[in-house]
Amino acid sequence: MTFSFLPVLLVPLLAPCVAPLLARRVLDRCPPVAALWTLTVSALLLAAGTVATLGTLTLTGMLHVPAFAAVGELVHPLRTPSAWLVLPLAVLAAGLLTLATLALGRSVVRQTAGLRTARSQAGRCPAAGDLCVVESARPDAYALPGRPHRIVVTTAMLRSLDAREREALFAHERAHNAGGHHYFLAAAELAAHCHPALRPVRDAIRLAAERAADEAAARRVGDRRLTARAIARAALATHTADTRRSAVTPAATTGPVPRRVAALLSPTHRPLRTGSWIAALLAVCAVLSVTTAATSAVEVHQDIEVAQGEARG
């Protein structure tokens, strides 16, 4: 590893910083399902590039410490820049990895507990097919992942909507389960804990999931205005309610509801020609990030083999 190699490691760490700007453009110019897939896959690749780069920096610094060099059976010095440069970067990278791991662990525990509570509550109530009605004065409705899938709605929410609006609401929640949107939301949570710049992308993924379910519900009931009205009234009903739930249980009242309603009331979305270019640009950034990180890791591995005497420099 040479001095010119270190700036290359900045690519996977800086690439996620352009993702939020591109994510907003993808949402505006691409169909919801295409945007959901593009944003999620790109976020995961950018997160993987970040983690791989931090891991590479950490490993490189560790092998400058005699104790770790002995464990790694290094018989020659590792070909890296000065330890005065590498060691501080390695300590910083290790600290960032540790913080990200702890934050992700807390999030997993919290989300798992929320899902367990929601599923336990749904299991105690009678179900009609996939619909589970919970007696509660708090208006709420959400899609509950797992086997079997459930649509959970409270009695207060049912009272807030008329019969046709309920049909649209149920169609929305069923679209979440049919589309496996909880997987996308879980991936967004994972990526957001790997790099701070990916947190706005997590919000964009959530919005894309809601827009995809909105469009599916509108097709199901055959009335875009009815779907928009159902979502707006459901959101108004839950506006003052304390609706705490797991981040991987999608709900019709999630995200910027006025923006979603406006999209439903506008003519059927037609993909803009620039949308594919922006989505491609985001994908290129993600692929460049993970490719650069992988190349760096391979080069470090080769340097370690040289230092172990297993290969020629």
UniProtKB/TrEMBL annotation:
<keyword id="KW-1133">Transmembrane helix</keyword>
<dbReference type="GO" id="GO:0046872">
    <property type="term" value="F:metal ion binding"/>
</dbReference>
<keyword id="KW-0378">Hydrolase</keyword>
<feature type="transmembrane region" description="Helical">
    <location>
        <begin position="6"/>
        <end position="23"/>
    </location>
</feature>
<dbReference type="Pfam" id="PF01435">
    <property type="entry name" value="Peptidase_M48"/>
</dbReference>
<feature type="transmembrane region" description="Helical">
    <location>
        <begin position="277"/>
        <end position="298"/>
    </location>
</feature>
<keyword id="KW-0482">Metalloprotease</keyword>
<feature type="transmembrane region" description="Helical">
    <location>
        <begin position="35"/>
        <end position="63"/>
    </location>
</feature>
<keyword id="KW-0812">Transmembrane</keyword>
<keyword id="KW-0472">Membrane</keyword>
<comment type="similarity">
    <text>Belongs to the peptidase M48 family.</text>
</comment>
<keyword id="KW-0862">Zinc</keyword>
<dbReference type="InterPro" id="IPR001915">
    <property type="entry name" value="Peptidase_M48"/>
</dbReference>
<feature type="domain" description="Peptidase M48">
    <location>
        <begin position="125"/>
        <end position="187"/>
    </location>
</feature>
<dbReference type="GO" id="GO:0006508">
    <property type="term" value="P:proteolysis"/>
</dbReference>
<keyword id="KW-0645">Protease</keyword>
<keyword id="KW-0479">Metal-binding</keyword>
<protein>
    <submittedName>
        <fullName>Peptidase M48 Ste24p</fullName>
    </submittedName>
</protein>
<dbReference type="InterPro" id="IPR052173">
    <property type="entry name" value="Beta-lactam_resp_regulator"/>
</dbReference>
<dbReference type="GO" id="GO:0004222">
    <property type="term" value="F:metalloendopeptidase activity"/>
</dbReference>
<feature type="transmembrane region" description="Helical">
    <location>
        <begin position="83"/>
        <end position="104"/>
    </location>
</feature>
